[in-house]
Structure formats: C-alpha cells, structure tokens
Fold Protein arginine methyltransferase NDUFAF7.
Amino acid sequence: MNSRILRMCNKLLIQQTISRGYAFKAVKRPDPKTLKMPAPGTAPSIMQIIKEKIRLNGPLTVAEYMHIISTNPTEGYYMKKEVIGEAGDFITSPEISQLFGEIIGIWFYSETQKMGPGKPLQIVELGPGKATLLLDILRVLNCFDYKPQDLSLHLVEISSTMQSVQANRLCISHREVDIALPHNYEGETVSGIKVYWYNDLKKVPTNFSWYIAHEFFDVLPIHKFEKTDDGWRELLIDLDGQDKLYYRITAEETASCKSLIRPPLDSGDRTELEISARSLGISRQLATRVDRYGGIALIADYGHEGEKGDTFRAFHKHKVVNPLENPGQCDLTADVDFSQLRIAASKSPYSDNYALVMGPVKQKDFLERCQAQIRLQVLLDNAKSDEDREKVQKSYEMLVDPQKMGERFKFMAFYPSVMEELLNKHPPLGFSTPKS
C-alpha cells in the first residue's frame, strides 16, 4: 500500500516538474551596440534625478550624491563638457607649465633605472584630463631613446567628452572597438605608439607600468561622518520643505559607519571624518599591481595627512561655491586624506604584501628636490621675449609658492616591496633631500 502511494506521488511530482518548464518564455535581449543615449535636452536634469531618488529611497549619502553628479551618462559634470582650463571651473599643474610634466617624466625614468631597463613599458594614467601631462612625459621619453615599440599608453577615463579631447590631442587616428574587448577605444600617436582607453583600472593589463594619478583621488566619492555623544553618525543629503537640498545627520549607525570607520582612521580627538571607499580600493589596487607585476605609482593631489575633517566643496569658474546648489554645474571635490591612502597601500607584516609607500611630501619640496630650478633656467634662457620669460617665471611660482600650490598639493609614491633594501641605499628622488 505504502509503496503504491509512493509511486503515485513520484509520478505526480515528475509530471509537475516537467509541466513547470512551459512557464518560461524566451526573451530577446537588446543588442548593446544598438543602444543610444537620449538626445541632448531630452534627459532629466541632475536636480530632477536627485529629487526623485530622495523621494523614492530617502536621503542620499554624500558619496551617492557625488557619484550621480560626476558620472550620470547624459548630465554628469564630467560627461558633457570640458571642465579644465581658464574657461572651465579649475586648472591643473600640467596646464600651468610644461615644466611640471617634464619633471614627472624625468622622475619616473630616474627611479625606473634602479629596477632595470624599464622596457617594454606601459604608462597608465587615471583621469588624464586634457592629456597635457602625457604629452610632456612623451617628450621626455623621446630624449631617452624610447621607441614606439617600447611603450604603450593606457588611459582610465569614464567621460566620453574627455576621451574625445584626449584622443584628438594624442592620436593621429582613433576609433571605437568591439564591446567584447577590455578597452572601449583605441588609437595611435603620430609616431606609432598604441593608445587604449578603459572605464576601469581593473581592465588594464597587468604588465610593468608607470601609474599616474594626478588630481584624480580628489573627485572620488566620499562619505562624511560626525562624532556625536552616541558615536559616529553619517551626514546625508535630504530635501527640505522648500524642495532644497540640505544636510541631515542620521540617528543610528549606517552601514557605512560600521564598514568604513575603523582604527586607526577614527583615532585621536577628531569630530569630523571623510572617507572614500573608492579611494581606498584604488589605492590598494595600485599597490598590489606595483608589488606583483613591477613598476611605480605616483599620486599628486591636494590633500592632508589626517588633520582635516570637513573639506567637501564645489568649484565654479575657479571660485568656491555651495556643493548643494546647482548640482551638475560645479566641480565637486574633497581634499585627499593621504594617511588613508597610506594605510590602504602599505606593505604589511602578514602574508599579503602591498607596496612601499613614500611620502606624502609637499609639491614645492618634490619639484625642488628634482632640481626643477635647473629646468626653469633653461626655459627662461630659451624664452623669446621678456613677456614670455615673465610668464614662465610666474607659472613656476604658482607651482611652488606655499600660498598657492606649493604646500597644498602633495606627492606620494608606491614601490614594489622587494625594493626596500635598495631604496634604503638609494633614497627615492623627490622624497628625500639629495646629497650635495
């Protein structure tokens, strides 16, 4: 009896299992190659997007707010216009003087000689701007007899607008590539150097490389925290009764509080804290790549060593403005906390070694230790007029003046952990005082 019932149940179950297959329907997915962005002017504004997200999901973290404004495909700040230069919202050191990029190129070449010939070479820049820094570095490498077959350029860039600017400045020809490839764009310089663009550092080949991150980390999204009587709480962005954005502090610990605020980041008597999870992750990536596959990473940005807590702001037409007003029209930025980058990248005493971290040092000290004054004198001697000489001198002063960029901007470098003994004997250029 029991066996007959069991056979009947099995038969029913088998029939049900088979019949369930008819509930599924084949769906044709859209071809990514045919997908197009909305026409200009037809997409919702950044403010509309932010308001709708807040209404649907509640207040935004500062990191979510920054991410939307920076990377929205149609209305994002970096996606729709050139933002660097006199006509933009800010200007960078390579745009101020060719001396800056040339010194960076000489520094990389000099430090690479401690490792070997440094060929073949990948130059990887994160957020290359208008590609001015790369052009200056390539001019230096040409003097050191690097041939087109000796190197390739790998640019990590999420903005199609800036990608176009970079391609037009660097390449004699350039084109889109198949979506299946790790890079999304490619080209060649007039001398035949191959150039590739990526939307993520993880997709860049893991070969011996020079990694450059100049004014890159300062725009990565941050979480903002304040210390209360009940412990650390996160600052969020919400809408008030007049439909305007404002800051509010959470009553309870958020997931970001629990995952990001750990010793020693919260040490001392700090009452405000800014942490970029993205920055910590990329710092670790750079350190791991350098340590495992060889090369050097150089970070140059304005920042501090853990003494500041509230640096989030916006720039519009070279002036500081309220970051919660006119979202999408201003450059959102926060000072880089170099102490956090050091923690994320430093060699550890455990099984996983990362990188030897040098710095940070002030931009003024780095350039002067690399003997930038010698290059300055050459540029002054070759200037064609008094007006040109004055321009060269003022540009250099802007880079090194403590009241301008000289102290606010800092440099940090990552070296392979196996170089510890060598660097003790031959200290890294720019991060130590040269012997007279």
